[in-house]
Amino acid sequence: MNKKQQGIALLVVGAGLIIWGLNMAGTFGGKVSSAFTGSPGDTPMMLYIVGAICVAAGIYRIK
What we know:
Elements: H1 3-25, H2 28-37, H3 42-62
Helix pairs in contact: 1-3
């Protein structure tokens, strides 16, 4: 697997994790948690962070 393929794979995985985090934050449990704490729960936040890292690494690998 060359660098460009790895970069594309990381971009796809990162985007998927971010979307998954958005879906988790939009569930009933996520909305209840957000109503009491003012921020999304730990799991959606972790998915956002890891997804962003994967996207950044993917962009770096493509260039």
